[in-house]
C-alpha cells in the first residue's frame, strides 16, 4: 500500500492471496495506522470483496473499475520496481524476494510520491473521501 502525498508505504509478503490472508493484511495495516484513517484503492479481486471480511474502522475500501490498473497508485510503484530487474535472472524465489525487499528499502518517500502522486488519482481519492464522510 502507498500513500501518494507523503510517499509512505506498507508492505507485507504472503505466499498467496485469499480472504483470510487479506484479512491479516487489513488487520496489520489497521494496527500500523493506529489512530489514522486510510482510503485503500484496490482492484475487484475476490479476496478484496469477500463477504466475510471485517473492515477495520480506520480503513475505507474503494474499488476501482475492472481492468484499470493505471488508476491504482501501487501499480505505478510495481512498474518502477520491475524495471529495475530488467534483464536479471534469479536462480530461485528467495533471490527475487531479497531483491524486491532491497529495492523497497532503498526507495525514499520522495521517490514513492513522485511515482504515485498523480493529480487524477488524488482527485478521485478526495472525492471518494467526501462521499464517504457525507454518507
Q: Which descriptors would you attach to this protein?
A:
mainly alpha; Nucleotidyltransferase, domain 5; 6 helices; two-stranded antiparallel sheet; 135 residues; 51% helix
Structure in words:
Strand 1 and strand 2 form a beta hairpin. 51% of the residues lie in helices and 10% in strands. The protein has a single domain, classed as Nucleotidyltransferase, domain 5. The protein is built from six helices and four strands, in the order E-E-H-E-H-E-H-H-H-H. It has 135 residues and is mainly alpha-helical. It is globular and about 50 Å long.
Helix-strand layout with pairing:
Elements: E1 2-3, E2 8-9, H1 19-33, E3 38-42, H2 46-49, E4 59-63, H3 73-84, H4 93-106, H5 109-116, H6 119-134
Main sheet specs: 2 strands, antiparallel
Reported by name, the CATH topology is Nucleotidyltransferase, domain 5
Q: Which percent range describes the beta-strand content?
A: 5-15%
The total count of helices amounts to 6
What is the assigned CATH homologous superfamily?
Ribonuclease H-like superfamily/Ribonuclease H
Q: What percentage of residues falls in helices of 4 or more residues? A: 40-55%
Task: Write a compact overview of the structure shown.
The chain is mainly alpha-helical. The chain has 6 helices and 4 strands.
